[in-house]
Amino acid sequence: MEGVDHLAHERNKSEFDVDAMKIVWAGSPHAFDVSDRISKLVASDPGFRKDNRSTLSRKELFKNTLRKAAYAWKTIVDLRLSEEEAAKLRFYVDEPAFTDLHWGMFIPAIKGQGTEEQQQKWLPLAYKMQIIGCYAQTELGHGSNVQGLETTATFDSQTDEFIIHSPTLTSSKWWPGGLGKVATHAIAYARLIVGGREHGVHGFIVQLRSLEDHSPLLGITVGDIGMKFGNGAYNTMDNGVLQFDHVRIPRNQMLMRVSQVTCEGKYKQSDVPRQLVYGTMVYVRQTIVADASCALSRAVCIATRYSAVRRQFGSQNGGPETQVIDYKTQQSRLFPLLASAYAFRFIGEWLKWLYADVTQRLQANDFSTLPEAHACTAGLKSLTTTATADGIEECRKLCGGHGYLCSSGLPELFAVYVPACTYEGDNTVLLLQVARFLMKTVSQLGSRLSSKKPVGTIAYMTRVEHLMQCRCGVQRGFAELSADLVEAAVAHCQLIVVSKFIEKLQQEIPGKGVKQQLEVLCNIYALFLLHKHQGDFLSTGCITPKHAALANDELRSLYSQVRPNAIALVDAFNYTDHYLGSILGCYDGNVYPKLYEAAWKDPLNESVVPDGYHLYIRPLLKQEIRTARL
To answer: Is the pTM of this model over 0.90?
Structure first.
C-alpha cells in the first residue's frame, strides 16, 4: 500500500536515538544540516532524475549527463551555494561526470603543484568553469609505474616553449575522465627533457580544445576509449585517449611550484620542498576512503532493508514466513558489512584530520610524519576500496535473485565503484608500498644506530622488538615474499581501522544508546576480522583454540544485539530514495508493488508482440525457417 511504512515495526524496535546517530554519521550538526538539506533539494528536483539510466543508449546517456552537469552548475549559481554545498550537490546528483575530475583532480593539482602566479591565472577560470580540466597521467602502456611514462616535454630555448609529444602508441594518454569529449585543458604528465637531459616526470597545463567551437587544437588527437563495464554506471563518463604531435605550450605552463625551468634552459629546484606534492596525494586518497564508506553504506542499507522485508520459509500454522534478516546465516554475512561501513566512516574522518595535520607540518618544513602518512593513505585506500567492492557484491547476493535487477540499484553501484580498486594506485601495488614501509620500520628496530622509537600507527611495533633477535637461515628476496608481505600490510591497515574506531568511542558521543550501538559495531568489526583470519592468529600463537571459540560465541551474541537496531542503523545514513536508487532499499519497504510497476516501464514492454516476431519467431513456430529472410 502506498503511503504506508512497511518497516515501521522494525523502526519501533530501535534502542537508540536515531537522530543523534545521524549527526555522528555526518560528522557534526553543521555537516548533517548541509547534507540533509542538499540531498532533499536534489531528490525533489525532476531535473536530476536517474531511474532511467540503464535503458539509455551510450549517446543518450552521455548527453543526459552533460545536461545534468550544466543543470547542477546553474542550480549552484542560482542558489549561490557555498563550495561545501556545491560539493554536496554534485555528490547527491550521483552520476560519474567530467566535473568529478575537474573539481577532484585538476583544481587540487594546480593548487598543490602550481606557483602563486599560476594559481592566480588558472584557478579563477577553473572555479567559474570557464575552462574544464582533466588529469592526464595514465597511458596506454603505463599506469602504476608513473616513472615509466613515455610522453615527453622537451624544452625549446629558442622559442621559450615546451614541445609535448607522444613518441609511441603506448604513450597515448588513456583513461582520464572528462578527456574524451569535454575537457578544454589537461594537466598532462610527461618526461621533462632540457638540453638533452631527462629530469623525471612533471606536470604541464595543456589546452586541448578551442574555447570557441570545442574542436581539438593543432597536434591534438583526442576521443573516447569506448564502453565500459555495466549498464549506465561509468559509461556516463567520457574516459579518453589523447595523443600529442609536437604540441607547443609556453614555458610558464609547466607546474613550477617545486621544480622550475628558466628561460635560459636551466633546470632548478625551487625553495619549496619537493615533499609538498604529497599533500595532494593525501587529499585525493582521503576522499577515496570517504567515498568507500558512502558506497558500502548504500549497499548495506539496501540489503538490510530488503532482508527485513523479504520472508522465506519457517511458516508456523499458516502464519507469516520468517524474515530473511532473522536467519543467522544472513546476519553473519550482513552485519559485519554494516560494522565495516561505520568503521570506514570513522577512518575517513581520521584521514581528513591527517591531511590537515600533514599540510600544516609541510608548511612548517616538518616532514617527519610523511612516510607514515603515505603508508596510511596508500594502505587504507587499498583496504577500504577492496572491502567495499567485495561488500557491494556480497550485498547483491544477500538480496537473492532480485538483487540482480538493475532496479535493485546494486549492479550499477558495483559497476560504478569497482574501478576504485585500480585508479589512484592499484591496490596490490599500494600494499607493497606499505609493506616496504613496515620492513624499513622493523629493520630500524634492530639497528643500534637508530634511536627513533615507532610512534603513531606503528607504535605497536615496539612490542615486537624481541623478534629482531631472531634470525632465519634462509635467504629470501623481497619479491619472493611479496604475497606474505601484502598480507602483513593488510593486517597493519586493519589494526589502524580498529584502533581509530576505538578512539572514536573514547570521545564524548551524545544521544541515548548511540555509544552502546557503536561499541557493538566496533566489536563486530574487530572480532569478525579475528574470525576470518583465525588461522593466522592460531598459527602464530596469538590466540588459543579456546580464544577462537569464545570469539565466535561473542560474535553470535553481538549479531543478536544488532538485530533489533539494524533498520535504525541504516536509517542513520539519512539517504533519500533518490540517492539510494533502489526499489529493494526504499524507505517504506513497499518493494513488491514497486518492482511490478517498474517492470512494465521497461522499453521492451512498450509493445505486446516483440518487433522481431514476424521475422524470427513466426518462422520458427510455423516451420518456415528455411524460407525465412534471416
So the answer is: yes
